[in-house]
Every structure is written in structure tokens, then in C-alpha cells.
Design goal:
The chain has 1022 residues and is of the alpha/beta class. The protein contains 39 helices and twelve strands. The strands form two sheets. The protein has an eight-stranded mixed β-sheet, with helices on both faces. Helix 36 (967-979) packs antiparallel against helix 37. The protein is globular and about 105 Å long.
Amino acid sequence: MDSIKSPTALPAGPRRSWWSDAEGRLSPHLLFFASGFTALVFEVVWAKQACLIFGNTSLASATVIGSFMAGLAIGSRLFGWWADRNPHKGWVAYGWLEGGVAVYALLFPWILGAMEPLYAAAYARWSGDFMRLSLARAALAFALLAVPTTLMGGTLPLLSRFLSRTASDGGRQAGGLYTLNLFGAAAGAFASGYILLELLGVRGASLLASAINLAICAAVLTDIRARATAPLPAADAEIAAPDGGEERLVAPGAIRLVYALLALHGFAAFVVQICWVRACALILSSSTYALSATLTVYLLGLAIGGLIVTRCVCSGVRPTAGRLGYLEASAGVAVLLFIPMFENAAFGFARVFPYVYTSPVLVMVTQLALAIAIMVVPTVLIGAFLPATLCLLGRSAKIGRVVGRCYAFNTAGALAGSFLTAFVLIPGIGVHGSILVASFVFVISGVWLVAVDPEVRGGLKVRRIIAAVLPAFLLMFYPWSRELFGSGVAVYADSWSRYAMMGRQVFFEVMKQNRDLVFYRDGISSTVTVLRYQDQTGRVQKSLRVNGKTDASTVGDMATQLYLGYIPLFAHPNPKNVLVIGLGAGVTVGTATQFDSVRSIECVEIEPAVVDANRFFSIENHFALRDPRVKVVIGDGRNHVRFTPKKYDVIISEPSNPWIAGISSLFSREHYRASLAALSEEGVFGQWFHSYQMTPEDFQMIIRTFAEVFPHTELYRLNGSDYMLLGSRGPVRYESSRIRKTVRSKPLMSSDLKFFTDSRGDFVTRTFLLSNEDLRAFLKDSPGPVITDDRLLLEYRAPRNLYRSSGDVADWIDRMPRKTIFPDYKDVSPESLIEAPEASHVILQQAEAAIGIGDPERALRYFAQAVRIKGYDAALHRQIGMTYESIGRFVRARQHYMRALKDPSVGPQAASLMRRARIRAMFLYNPLMSRDVELRNLIARLSYFGGDIVSAMRLCSEAMDMDPTYLKNYADMAVYSASVGLPKEAYELLRKASEVNPNDPAVLTAAELIRRQYGAPQDQEA
């Protein structure tokens, strides 16, 4: 590269660094780093607060972000012009701008509240007019953010002009300031997503950023007197060539072209950013931590690119249009390299998952590492373009205007990119096509700059253009795996990791086997796919996936979707107006169409592609979208509930999982208050949520938040780990006769309940879990936090438990004491209800829960009720016998075991348990027998053959501790471990026993039994 040797260069000012000047005064560069930090925090905080009013849709988010960037562009243009006219006032003006942003941030909640009635009026008037409502939203968002963002946009040109001492110094100073600001923004993105919002909440984070900005203002104002400035030369300075002739880095006619290409660069850069966020949701998940990782790495890459360029210029490397063009074309090639890197990152995450999933911190570190691996090279190249352009154009006395124009054109391009990507490119040509468009823009811009560079001539120019275009052209044909987008590698990493361990080829082959991708659509906010496959029984099943995560299916989710509709609709005496938040497969909407009293059904769905995918579930949802009563509203369910003037008899909320960024706002106290206000006097609200991937504390926090708003709250277990909270103003009383009559008269409803839920009786009774009285008694004794708009704790806690099982929550629920085990019916008394056949299922559940909490006496009372209802049941008598045996009442235990002998399917187990009870009864007369290892081993074997494997393993473990040399304990324990699916543990026990005596008959027999079932030990290691 050529270096600058200018004999006529203007004298330089005092030697400076980014952290201090020659006199040791406060460094503007350090303050500008802090400005970048606070600006990003403000952007995140204001976007969250504004979207709570304008909606959390992609359109609303793009409107808010677009308004933010529009203000930056306006501010950089206006203050760039002012900086050149007032070069000595740039320092103090910068301080006042930072102080102004802080003051506005402190007033922001009140300003936002003042705009809420305006948006409410616009929503009430134009909710059915997409264009007018969008224009109103854009106008209000711009009015909300114009003032602070304009002030932010003016800081770069002001400081660039203030710090420039010579004509050649302007571009370097601007590039350095821009780079430091980006480093601060990256730090702000990391701190906001990982620390501040969870720790301090939205308002706390805003107050912290405001305090930093006020500190910047105070530091500048106290530093004014100690600082002297020197003006730039009056004339526009040019760098003289070594031969004394005049050299222009950019021809005057090409300057406008560079500004236009800056706008195209900003456009393409924002297209890339949005597409990468969408793509990385597959391998990093859609959590707030994954989004923060993507944004942090993107900003960090841009900052590193700016740093490299600035240091090169400081070292004497001369910027030219040709070099700038080659840099831009290289960025286009690197953007295309993201696609194969992305596939490798998906495989890499599945490969390392077994080593990191137990630690949320390790998972986050892995996400950051993968984001760096696939994004750092292209972002560094993209980030180098604007600082290089500033160095190319910034050799002027009018440095403020030059910086202002550059920043304004770049930001304006980004503004266009945000809207066109979300609403034109991705819905039209998909994520892959949008990445190709961005790469094409980068490459063409680079070629254009090489073409206009006067230093690059003839054959050299042609060779450089071919070198830029050819790699991009070849990479455009790299295949885009739609199956990968529908696989959900991040969400189902525990399953995919098994195939990743077998190698990359197996991993991607399995991904394409036994799954027919019948629908794929890159929607406005999500990638939606429909998979069709055969289950273990050979039946064809379908699943709807959003960003790779299953949101609905025809197998495991059907009972949940049906109960979520039928229970709230039967809870209301005469439902007419129904609102469903979240369409999914449309099954819940389909349940509402089965009620003759229902007049209107509104479904709010945030992603239009989900509506298009519903045609594959028409049979399961009974062609719900063809029902004239059904109206699908594309928008944010929370926003609709808050601002619609309508009242609903039933509101059903079935959003996606709360660990997904933005979803937790549908579980906040403010949203529930708006929902209660939108209900009619007898209205009911049904909230779906789950226990998997969640701690008991988070599960309780959802219940606590809901119950704080709704005066009457009940809890239902819909299916496995799926639950529903039912809220209303007053007690909910069902009509058993109405439920039975409706089910009998509706063949589709009857077939739904019998085929998908196996509910042959009253499904309300079967799913009822906690009454309002029991639930509030628990909450009274277990205080804790609630979810609010200011502190969406669930959004930050839930992702840390993404790979957690639901066992802890299930155990907690089963151990909870209950006074009421049946829902309240108008036409059925508790006495008659408890004698109904379907009540036995509920009573047995309560008996098992009582055993789980160590209350066998209460369990026996429930068992007695179940016997009165069911009559003779051998399995029930076996369970009762085990309960009596647990409290030492061996005679009663043997009586029930004897009754169980009559059933051939249970008799052999009961016989083993009878022998066990007889031996344990002998301990009462001779306690020393309990120390006999062989006798304890025998009791363990009888427990195993009696079906009580838990007791068998416990007793065998105790026997091993009593006498480690008795190898039969090791052999039996290995068999028990293998029977519960722990072959590795079984082989380890056999290995220890073989070290003592490899020829022991019991050990050899156990090894042969386990080998027949699981194969050789080395197979388990593989």
C-alpha cells in the first residue's frame, strides 16, 4: 500500500491518544465510548417501552427502529452544518446534547403515556385499515423519538469537527470516534441483554443510562475552561502529491456517487443484520440472550472493522476509491460465506451440547462463540466501509458537514433496509434470497467504486472486478437447507446431539429422513414450516414449527389445544364473543365453532405465514377459518386486548413459550389487567402455560402474577406438562348437564374428546387441579415476585432453563395440599360427584400425591373412596397393600394382596409382595434380622418382582453398603438399573463386581441378561 509523503502538509496539533491528550485533560474519545454505551441502552429500553403500546409486531418494531434511525440521520445532517459554522463550540454543544438526551430519557415514561390515548383513538378508528393505522403508528413513533435521536445524531459531527486540527486530520478523527462509539454500543448491547434489564428493569436501566449521560454533560462543562481549540484553515485543504502536482482522492463528480453508495451500504448492512438474526434463531434459539449475542457480535465486528481502518490510516495507508471498492466487494463475498458457516455452526452446537447443557452460563458462552465464528469476518469487512469513507472524504475544512452527510446517508439507507427487509424482501424472496440481494448490493457497489477510481486502469481494473465478482457468483449457488430451518436444532439439541456425535454426514442425513417438509415460508417475523411424518404406530402426523420450534401438532398437543378451548367455553354460561390469542394449528379456534351460542370469534395472530400454514390442519380444526364467525386479525394480541373497544365473554391466550423474546409480555400483570378490563361481567380468561423448561419458582411466579389480577383463579392440568389458569371476576360454576348434552349433540366434539384425549367422562373433572381457595392459600404462604412490564423476569429466567426437565414442577404440584379436588358444579352435588365413575381417576391422583408428600393415612382415605366407586380392581388393591405395608400394618397389607391374587395380570406381583410383607413382619419380633444382608437382598428381589422397583433399588443399595463383598447385590442392582433404562450404570456395577470375582455365577447371569437387551458394553460407550 502507498503511504502519504506530503511536504506541504499542515502542522499538526498536540499529540493525542484515544484516552487522554497531551495535557492530561479529559479525553473526548473516552466520553464518546460511554455515549455509544448509553445510546444502545436507550435504544433497547425505548423500543421495549414503545412496543408495549404500538405492539410487538415486526411492523411496530421496524417503525420504532426506523424512527430512531431517522432521528439520527436528521441530527447528523443538521449539527454537521452547525459544527462547521461554530467550530469552537463543538465541545460544549456535545455536552449539552448528552445532557438533553438524559433529560428526555427521564421524561420518556410520561411522554409515552401522553401518546397512549392518541394511539388508542387511532386503533379504535383504523384497526381494520392496515395502511392508515401503520401511518398513524409511524407518525406517533417519530414524534416520540425525534427529539432524543436528533440530539444523538449530532454528537459525531460535532466532536469530529472539534477534534480536527488539520485538513488531513478530520477523516481520521471521525473514523476513530465512530469506532469507539461502536465499541460502546457493543458493550451496551451485551450489558442490556445479559445484565441490566433483568437486574434493574426497564426503568432502572434507563435511569442508569441517564445518569451516565448527565455525568458526561457535567464532565464536559467542567472541562471547558481548561481546553483551548485551534481552527482549521479557512480554505478547503487538499493533500499535495510528491511531485508538486495536485492529487484528488475522489474526483469532485464522484463524491455524490460515494454518498449514494453509502446509502446502499447502510441498506445492505441492515438487510444482513435482520437476516442473520432470523437465521441464528435456529442455532442460538429465539431467546433474549441469543438475540443479544447476535447484536453484540454484529456491533463488535463493525467496531473492529473501524478500528483496523483507522489504525491503517494512522500508519500512513492512503484511502482510495479502488481500495474502498475492493473492501466492499469482499464484504459481499463474506456475507455469502455465512451460509456454509451457518450449517457448520448448527452441527457444532449439537456436537458440543452434551458438554454444556447443564450450565446456562456455558450455553450462553457457546452461543456467543458460535455467533463470533459465523459473523465476525463479514461484520469486520462491513464495519470498515464507513470509517474508510470518512477518511476518504474527510480531508476538508468542512469536516462537520462531510461527517454529517456520510452518517445521514448511511443511516437513511439502514432505515430503508429495515422496512424493505421485513415487509418486502423476506416475505417475498425469503431469508436466503434477501442475503443474496445484500451480497449483490455489496459487490456491485464495490465494482462501481473500482470502476471510478482513476488510479486503477485498463487490465488491472478488469482483473480486480473479476476477482470481486467471480467468488460471489459461485457462492450464490450454494444450496440453502430448508430442512435445517425446520429442524429446531437449538430447541431439540438433546435429540440432535446424538446424531451429531455420529458425524456431520449422519447428522444431515437424519435431518432429511422420515420427514416431509410440506410447507416452508419465511414470514414477516418468523420462519414457519409444516412437517409431515409417520409415528411409531405408522400413522401420519403433522407438526407446525415456528423458527424450528413445534408450536402445534396432531399428536402430542391435540389434547392441550382442545381442552384449552372447551374448558373456558363451558365455564361461561352463555359465550357469545370469543377472542383467541395465537392461532397455531387453529384447533382451539375450531373448538369455539362447535358452540351454537357463539356469534363472533376473533383470533389475533402475529405471523401471517401461520395463517397460510393452517390449510394443512383443516381436518383437525374442523375448517375453522372457513366459518363466517371467525375473523383473523394480524397483529399483537396484547396490543389488541389493550386498545380494542370490544368486550369478550371468553379470552383464550395460547402464545408460544415464554422463553422466547417478547412472549413474556403476555404474562405480565399489566397485560392481565387489560384482559380483565376487556372481559364482560361474567367473562373468563384462559391462560396456557407449561411446566417443562421451567423451575418451580418461575411456575409459581406466573400463577402469582395471574392471581394478583383475577379475583377468582383456578389451575388445570391439560395434558402432561401443559397447564391452564382460568381467571374471572367471580366463582366459576359448571353445568354438568349442559356439558354432557352439548358433547352428545356435537359429533365432532365427541370424537375430539374420545379420540384425542381419551376422555370418556367429564373432562373438566379430570383436568381440574387447584381451586381458588387452595391456590390462594399456597400463595399466601409463598410470597415472591410478579411479572411486570418494567421487570419481565420470566424473559430472562426462562431461557436459562431451556434444557431443564419438568420433574421438579410436577413434584411440587403433586405435593401441594388440597381441600377441594373437584370443580364447582351448579347441578351436581359433591356427594353425587364423588360417586361418579370419572371421579376415580381424580381420587387416585390425589392418593398418589398424598403418598408423594409422605401422608399415607390421607392416601388410604382416597383409596377407600376409589374402591367404593370402581368396585373390584386388582391393581388398586395391590397399591393399597403397598401403602399399608409402608406404615407397618402388615396384616391389612396381606389382606389386600390376597384380593389382588385373583387377577392373573397382577397376581404374580401381589404374591411377591405378600412374601415381602411376611418377612418384614418378622422384623417386629427379631430386629436383628434386618441386618442380614442376604435377607435384605431377598426383600429387594421380592420388591422387584412385585413391581416396586424404587424400593428394590433402595434396599439393594443399603445391602451393598452393609456388605460390599456380597456380589449378588451388585448383580441384582445392575439388573434393576438396566430395567429403568440405565445400561451404562448397570455395566459399571458389573465391572466392579468382576474385579472381585469374574466367575461369580450371579454376576455372569446378570451380565448375560443385560447383554441380550442392550448389547455389548462397548456399544453403550459409542
